[in-house]
Inverse folding.
């Protein structure tokens, strides 16, 4: 061992180095976010709770097919509607259920959606989806998907509304909602 | 102090109660400060929900531990399992009877004549400290053994070997101070430092560092926390303990930390004395009461404990033994020789 | 340091068998090791795995090719991007797809960030295993920034699902490259800080040098890949041997160790983080314009055949063996899990060491049970 | 960066970059004349049953009973020191043997890889290659666990990912993805054989 090495060893330079780092961080700005009082705002592309718009949906089942774990259940029937005096067959949504408790938020359903703007999206910035009972409260049918009843939306985020862009959770670009849900 | 019975019974009783309360509260709040300082070193905030800035956290913890279910493993050695926490806690608290927290004081004029703020000063004080505190190891071993858990058993065995090994260099480093002081009494040791005009940390710097290392090892603290190394032995000897029994182990550990720091203060940092107690130039420091000096020095040691915990990795068992027997013991012996020679040349202890 | 060579157990000693895990603070999840002990010395260790087995390979067989990608996220959940990269690389090779250069560069950035993130988790937990608590928090603070970058890019932080067959699903958001560059530029200083805490620390050295030594020949024999192999001094990295994406266009070194012990593997990984920083910096500088998605059919339907494609994951060679019968679902999709194969060597490495060393060795192998059990 | 989505307008004459073309999948080719195959054939002339090259990867089908010889020759003679992967594929209806056991080897000297394949009928033992590469140990255990292929001479052929007493081999094509009643012998003293906890059940309090 060299003399220098011996000296550094006797005077514990290696240990003092470590102590200096932790000592420095003692006065460092703290990284903690005090969660319920302070919340982090998710990024624009954040995949959170679902938004769904029945008007935009063309009942093509692409989302259900794209879902890797088959948690989107769709049922539809044909109805005759009059458009410009002509009778046309139109698909009508009976049921659009998402078993959110099993969802892994991969976003493939949103990517598969052919409508513009998409009829199902996850960019609602809402992540506080905890519930006391998962079978009831985390199973969403199409009404709840559009109103998020039972799941607390992220504060400051309005539930998606008519004409709202999926990447516009604050609703700034779209018409103001009449009533802000919770 | 008219009635001798008051002096004989009541005053010590009051002192005992006060010291016990202070030590237990200190242990509780030491846990708070440890969590807080550790958190700050780890760029976190630490406990801050119970009470303002989390000040009531230790109280909340204590309450929680009181009401917690007390689980005794069905195949544990019940009696020993019950006794073990007491065996470690009692010595840790008893030892505080001989720690001199400050010089004789009238408590800001409350008393007519000055009274020592410590319980007693026995002429073998330091021997008493070393002797009684080493009884605590039985609590660890028995607790580990009686839990009937292999991790606990290993923790207990580690602890036994560790505590016994580190008593030896620790004893030798204390002897170096005793040579300089010429007394075993804790108060006399402090007074010897006053006479010498210098804390013993300066002539006994090597003994001081050996004492610190051994002290950290004796209290099973990082980087010597092998008996309860959570990444290896889950929680070591107290894996199976819960509720108040666990709290006793916890209390003993923190009380021991305070104890080791107090003894280090008395032996090396001049107890309640200000720096360079005879230097007139520093006389303005005398406005600070002696027990504040004492508390500040103890606090410094405790901070170092926490700082070490926040910084260092953990030794391995054989490396710990090698450090104790192959490094600290020879160095402490050599230091003893040097200090002895020095004392002899300077004309013997004061 | 290596005073711990296996010695004959004492003649009248009693062996003790301890079950480490599956609930144990230092087994990185649900690994269980049955350890036979003589005192504290390990006579034999037997890893027992499968507590996290989810049948991922069976699930793959019922998914479309793009639908398998979210499932790969959940294998090595500390390195979802490299898992994605391996899978889409395999399918692309099978279909003959050339990924647009911009997508390839984005993939490299994501993969290298993921390597940094994975090594950061390794460093934090490894240090925690050896008893140093604090690096865990320092490292995770940096990882948080990486996760933020991922969140901004693909919307998820851990299970990214951030690659598709044929390219990238999204383009980079505005300002992402600047934030990414700012992060990687300051990272070497952070790494130096972590090293100040550990590299020269005598306790760290005592705990890691000479622990879990494996020679280069033995490492190859046991099929080790990644940092455990490079720590033994084998200069082997899929990124150099079989360059995928555009790794042949960037300049980086492969750090190797000399002794094949825990300390060398530690140094290798620390250096790998710096090299990843270099790669990310180069990628961001070279990042070409253009599309991020190649022209691939909407329904991914590779031809009949079989292919093996591997990437250099943070843990080692992560390979996907795809057997296609020409339909939209993989006929068989086998994962070559790096951790699974690296873990196999554990009994070899710990025999004759102390219990504490086993914890260090489990840490240094950098296992993720999600990938081992799949 | 959104505008970068649109490619800069290109010259009409310039050929399209490959990512704009329809992808051309690789074709399987007979690889009997491939250099790596010839190397093997030079050492063991009669083992090459079939050789296919697909996307640059050479697959060699060898007789199942000769697999250890071939592997040893590949490792010792041809320098395939590194067994990258060992797995199996289930071709349920195939007449010449239900399973493919696949060995995927790497050679460090020139970074070449070679795939060996042995066709095995259900219930037929394959000889273990753990004597050749130590790494094969767990891979063979996994293949046994997942496919029920028995490896003779394996030092410790136990189930590895599922538990002892698991009923069935999950990666066989006839194993339903919904799972089977596993007959889990998890707690033999609590549950009678075949009566273990069922997936999705409430469990026993």
């Amino acid at each position: 061992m060299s003399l220098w090495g011996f000296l550094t060893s006797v005077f514990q330079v290696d240990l003092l180095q470590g102590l200096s780092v932790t000592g420095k961080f003692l006065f460092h700005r703290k990284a903690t976010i005090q969660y319920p009082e302070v919340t982090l705002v998710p990024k624009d592309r954040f995949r959170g709770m679902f938004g769904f718009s029945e008007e935009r949906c063309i009942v093509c089942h692409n989302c259900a097919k794209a879902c890797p774990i088959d948690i989107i259940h769709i049922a539809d029937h044909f109805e005759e509607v009059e458009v410009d005096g002509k009778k046309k067959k139109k698909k009508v949504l009976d049921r659009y259920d998402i078993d959110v408790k099993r969802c892994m938020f991969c976003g493939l359903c949103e990517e598969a959606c052919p409508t513009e703007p998409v009829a199902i999206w996850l960019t609602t910035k809402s992540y506080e989806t905890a519930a006391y009972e998962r079978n009831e409260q985390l199973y969403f049918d199409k009404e709840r998907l559009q109103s998020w009843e039972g799941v607390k939306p992220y504060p400051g985020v309005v539930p998606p509304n008519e004409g709202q862009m999926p990447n516009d959770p604050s609703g700034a670009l779209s018409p103001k909602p009449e009533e802000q849900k919770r | 102090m008219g009635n001798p019975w008051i002096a004989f019974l009541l005053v010590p009783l009051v002192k005992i109660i006060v010291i016990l309360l202070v030590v237990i509260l200190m242990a509780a709040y030491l846990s708070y400060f440890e969590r807080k300082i550790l958190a700050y070193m780890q760029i976190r905030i630490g406990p801050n929900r119970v009470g303002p800035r989390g000040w009531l956290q230790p109280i909340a913890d204590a309450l929680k531990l009181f009401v917690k279910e007390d689980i005794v493993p069905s195949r544990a050695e019940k009696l020993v399992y019950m006794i073990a926490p007491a065996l470690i806690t009692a010595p840790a608290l008893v030892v505080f009877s001989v720690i001199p927290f400050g010089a004789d004081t009238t408590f800001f004029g409350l008393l007519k004549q000055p009274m020592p703020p410590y319980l007693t000063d026995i002429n073998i004080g330091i021997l008493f400290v070393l002797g009684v505190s080493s009884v605590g190891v039985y609590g660890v071993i028995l607790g580990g053994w009686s839990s009937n858990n292999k991790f606990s058993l290993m923790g207990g065995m580690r602890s036994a070997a560790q505590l016994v090994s580190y008593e030896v260099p620790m004893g030798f480093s204390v002897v170096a101070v005793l040579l300089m002081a010429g007394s075993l009494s804790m108060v006399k040791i402090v007074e010897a430092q006053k006479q010498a005009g210098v804390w013993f940390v300066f002539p006994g710097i090597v003994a001081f560092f050996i004492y610190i290392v051994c002290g950290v090892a004796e209290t099973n603290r990082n980087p010597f926390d092998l008996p309860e190394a959570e990444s290896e032995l889950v929680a070591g000897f107290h894996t199976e303990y819960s509720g108040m029994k666990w709290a006793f182990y916890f209390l003993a550990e923190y009380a021991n930390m305070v104890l080791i720091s107090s003894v280090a203060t008395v032996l090396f940092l001049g107890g309640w004395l200000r720096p360079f107690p005879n230097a007139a130039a520093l006389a303005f420091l005398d406005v600070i009461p002696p027990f504040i000096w004492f508390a500040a020095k103890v606090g410094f040691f405790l901070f170092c404990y926490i700082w070490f915990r926040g910084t260092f990795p953990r030794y391995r068992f054989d490396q710990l033994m090698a450090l104790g027997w192959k490094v600290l013991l020879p160095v402490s012996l050599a230091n003893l020789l040097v200090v002895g020679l020095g004392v002899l040349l300077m004309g013997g202890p004061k | 340091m290596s005073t711990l060579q296996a010695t004959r157990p004492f003649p009248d000693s009693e062996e003790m068998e301890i079950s480490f895990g599956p609930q144990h603070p230092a087994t990185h999840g649900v690994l269980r090791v049955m350890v036979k002990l003589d005192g504290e010395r390990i006579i034999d260790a037997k890893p027992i795995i499968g507590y996290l087995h989810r049948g991922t390979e069976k699930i793959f067989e019922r998914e479309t090719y793009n639908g398998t990608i979210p499932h790969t996220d959940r294998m090595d959940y500390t390195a979802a991007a490299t898992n994605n990269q391996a899978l889409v690389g395999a399918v692309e090779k099978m279909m003959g797809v050339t990924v647009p250069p911009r997508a390839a560069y984005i993939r490299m950035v994501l993969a290298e960030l993921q390597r940094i993130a994975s090594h950061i988790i390794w460093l934090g937990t490894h240090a925690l295993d050896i008893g140093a608590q604090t690096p865990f928090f320092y490292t995770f603070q940096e990882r948080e920034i990486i996760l933020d970058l991922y969140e901004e890019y693909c919307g998820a932080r851990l299970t990214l699902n951030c690659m598709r067959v044929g390219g990238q699903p999204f383009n980079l958001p505005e300002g992402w490259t600047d934030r990414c560059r700012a992060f990687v530029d300051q990272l070497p200083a952070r790494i130096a800080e972590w090293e100040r805490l550990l590299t020269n620390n005598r306790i760290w050295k005592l705990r890691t040098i000479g622990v879990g030594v494996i020679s280069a020949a033995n490492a190859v024999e046991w099929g080790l890949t990644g940092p455990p192999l490079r720590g033994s001094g084998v200069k082997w990295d899929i990124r150099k041997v079989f360059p995928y994406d555009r790794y042949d266009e960037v300049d980086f070194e492969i750090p190797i160790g000399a002794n094949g012990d825990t300390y060398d593997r530690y140094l290798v990984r620390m250096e790998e983080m710096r090299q990843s920083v270099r790669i990310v910096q180069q990628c961001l500088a070279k990042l070409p314009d253009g599309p991020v998605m190649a022209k691939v059919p909407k329904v991914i339907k590779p031809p009949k055949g079989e292919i093996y494609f591997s990437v250099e994951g943070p843990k080692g060679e992560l390979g996907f063996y795809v057997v296609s019968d020409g339909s939209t679902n993989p006929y068989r999709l086998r994962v070559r899990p790096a951790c699974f194969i690296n873990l196999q060597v554990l009994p070899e490495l710990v025999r004759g060491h102390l219990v504490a060393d086993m914890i260090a060795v489990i840490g240094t192998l950098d296992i993720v049970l999600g990938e081992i059990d799949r | 960066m959104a505008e970068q989505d649109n490619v800069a307008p290109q010259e009409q004459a310039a050929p399209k970059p490959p990512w704009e073309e329809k992808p051309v999948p690789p074709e399987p080719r007979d690889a009997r004349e491939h250099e790596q195959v010839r190397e093997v054939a030079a050492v063991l002339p009669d083992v090459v049953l079939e050789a296919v090259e697909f996307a640059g990867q050479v697959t060699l089908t060898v007789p199942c009973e000769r697999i250890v010889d071939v592997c040893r020759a590949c490792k010792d003679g041809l320098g395939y020191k590194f067994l990258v992967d060992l797995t199996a594929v289930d071709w349920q209806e195939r007449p010449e043997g239900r399973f493919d056991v696949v060995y995927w080897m790497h050679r460090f000297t020139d970074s070449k890889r070679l795939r060996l394949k042995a066709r095995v009928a259900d219930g037929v033992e394959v000889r273990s290659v753990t004597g050749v590469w130590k790494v094969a140990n767990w891979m063979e255990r996994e293949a046994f666990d997942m496919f029920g292929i028995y490896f003779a001479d394996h030092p410790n052929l136990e189930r590895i990912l599922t538990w002892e007493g698991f009923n069935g081999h999950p990666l066989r094509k006839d194993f339903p993805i919904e799972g089977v009643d596993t007959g889990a012998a998890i707690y033999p003293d609590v549950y009678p054989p075949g009566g273990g906890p069922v997936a999705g059940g409430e469990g026993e309090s």
Observations:
- The CA atoms of residues 35 and 60 of chain D lie 12 Å apart.
